[in-house]
Write a structure and sequence with these properties.
By secondary structure, this protein is an alpha/beta fold. It folds into three domains: about 210 residues, FAD/NAD(P)-binding domain; about 110 residues, FAD/NAD(P)-binding domain; about 110 residues, Enolase-like, domain 1 (2-Layer Sandwich). It is about 35% helix and about 25% strand. Strands 1, 2, 3, 4, 5, 6 and 17 form a seven-stranded mixed sheet that branches. The chain has a five-stranded parallel sheet with strand order 8-15-9-10-11. The mean pLDDT is about 100. It binds flavin-adenine dinucleotide and 1,4-dihydronicotinamide adenine dinucleotide (NAI). 1,4-dihydronicotinamide adenine dinucleotide (NAI) binds next to helix 6, strand 10, strand 12 and strand 18.
């Protein structure tokens, strides 16, 4: 029987990063993966394929709509969807191979099969009707999440799809109905809208992107509407009739009232994700779940069973790849006797649309609810020189600082490259920095990042270019 210091179940960004860090710390490590390829949701059907399609579809859109005004005259671009899907697949393959390389480089054994915890220190790995049991001093559960389903609406991944099917449609739908105005709905909605689909988004709440700053979400909705998105807020899809050639979705107001029917070629259900714990044998082994079905952990990622830890989408917190990665590093360090730690106050969030939306820290709504006195500094990209010359002026930067101490509590950006720009705010917040610190930091000119400096100046009511 093989014996390891650590066995990690799942090779998504949480699991494989945890394995690498543990190996760096001198542990003998194995990962268990039931999928044919390593990398989890993120690399295979999540972050990476969606970003490949977002990039390719953005180029298509730019070539068709933005080149001419810059004096680049080309014939109207034609979509070759199979080639675009091939571009996506090449990106997936490259990243998956990268994880395989990292496993080899760090001498991590890859055990292909479904992992089941038999008790403290014992993992059974089953594949093709055969199974083996491995011994492990410590076990990390990193089995991630799965799509949430709508009662009575069956996902066939052809006409009624989850994000997985929406990443591989064989043709551009004439009409795409999206259930849920969260991150997946707006990102994948953008992909298919740019490629020619008519997009309607039905959202249960009275706003898009719940959890993000309300003012940012409102402006983002306006921008998306200008691009051609249609939103039905405060509404829910209760049934989809698949009998005819066109799907017929029943939409009801969330607060009750008369239903309406909307026709669509494809319905994308993206109403969140749920923790994935199937086949792990948690109940029998004595690993407790919380009321929402997530693996329950203490502040050091330890579950109720000695020597068993859990990280990533399968535990509480934002379902984000970088959160899973950071937890992977932290738990490996804790198992090695070090002080691994994740600062949950500084986890950025990005929506990779055009423009992008990014955020870190508290929203205005959260500060109001907590009764924290705060000051706001805002700066629009219409007043940023680089954005003006590039003619990409949608959006603004918003900084929220403590009214007494000036410490930055939250930064929210809507605009091109917002996902790259947010990280100077993350570093500042990790060091407990103030708006004044940001305002006095020299920023290169001309960059979009100057809008962050200006927003920081605006906290003290002294923005220069506004
Ligand atoms: P996962 O990546 O879900 O990996 C879990 C792995 O465990 C899987 O490979 C699974 O096969 C394996 N597994 C499960 N059970 C067993 C078992 N019993 N035995 C063996 N193996 C098992 N996040 C971002 O931060 N940025 C993005 O841009 C982004 N885009 C996304 C786009 C889409 C369409 C989706 C669906 C998600 C996106 N996410 C994004 C979320 C991100 O993918 C997840 O937060 C992240 O993958 C979670 O990592 P994880 O390691 O916890 O689990
Ligand atoms: P989400 O939680 O972001 O959004 C789901 C939306 O559906 C919410 O607005 C919710 O109010 C709405 N909703 C729920 N039930 C509904 C119903 N019955 N009818 C209509 N609307 C309903 O979830 P999403 O978009 O599925 O994404 C899942 C996870 O994947 C998220 O937690 C996100 O963090 C992660 N992800 C991250 C990305 C990124 O970081 N760029 C990209 C894509 C996904």
């Amino acid at each position: 029987m093989a014996t390891y210091d650590l066995v990690v179940i799942g090779t998504g960004p949480g699991g494989y990063v945890c394995a690498v860090r543990a190996s760096q710390l001198g542990m003998k490590v194995a990962v268990v993966e039931k999928n044919a390829t390593l990398g989890g949701t993120c690399l295979n059907v999540g972050c990476m394929p969606s970003k490949a399609l977002l990039h390719a579809s953005e180029m298509f859109e730019e070539a068709g709509h933005s080149f001419a005004k810059m004096g680049v005259s080309i014939p109207s671009p034609k979509l070759d969807l199979p080639a675009m899907m091939n571009f996506k697949q090449q990106g997936i393959d490259g990243n998956v191979k990268g994880v395989e390389f990292l496993m080899k480089k760090n001498k991590i054994d890859v055990l292909k099969g479904t992992g089941k915890i038999l008790g403290s220190g014992k993992v059974e790995v089953s594949a093709d009707g055969k199974s083996q049991v491995v011994d492990a001093k410590s076990i990390v559960i990193a089995t991630g999440s799965d799509i949430a389903r709508l009662k009575g609406i069956e996902i066939d991944e052809k006409r009624i799809v989850s994000s997985t099917g929406a990443l591989s449609l064989e043709k551009v739908p004439g009409k795409l109905l999206i259930v849920g105005a969260g991150v997946i709905g707006l990102e994948l909605g953008s992909v298919w809208h740019r490629l020619g689909a008519e997009v309607v988004v039905v959202e249960f709440l009275d706003r898009i992107l719940p959890g993000m700053d309300g003012e940012i979400a409102k402006q983002f909705q306006r921008i998306l509407e200008k691009q051609g998105f249609a939103f039905k807020l405060g509404a829910k899809v209760t049934a989809v009739d698949t009998a005819g050639k066109t799907l017929k979705a029943t939409i009801e107001p969330a607060a009750g009232g008369a239903a309406e029917t909307l026709e669509a070629d494809v319905v994308l259900v993206c109403i969140g994700r749920v923790p994935y714990t199937d086949a792990l044998g948690l109940k029998e082994a004595g690993v407790a779940l919380d009321p929402r079905g997530r693996v329950q952990i203490d502040p050091h990622f330890a579950t109720s069973l000695k020597g068993v830890y859990a990280i990533g989408d399968v535990v509480a917190g934002p379902m984000l790849a970088h959160k899973a990665e950071d937890e992977g590093v932290a738990v490996a360090e804790i198992i090695a006797g070090q002080a691994g730690h994740v600062n949950y106050d500084v986890i950025p969030g990005v929506v990779y649309t055009t423009p992008e939306v990014s955020c870190v820290g508290k929203t205005e709504e959260e500060l109001k609810q907590a009764g924290t006195a705060y000051t706001v500094g805002k700066f629009p990209f219409t007043a940023n020189g680089r954005s003006k010359v590039n003619q990409t002026t949608d959006g603004f930067v918003k900084i929220l600082a403590d009214a007494k101490t000036d410490r930055v509590l939250g930064v929210h950006i809507i605009g091109r490259e917002a996902g790259e720009m947010i990280h100077e705010a993350c570093v500042l917040m990790e060091f407990g920095g103030s708006a004044e610190d940001l305002a006095r930091t020299c920023h290169a000119h001309p960059t979009r990042s100057e809008a962050i400096k200006e927003a920081a100046l605006a906290v003290g009511k002294r923005a220069i270019h506004m």
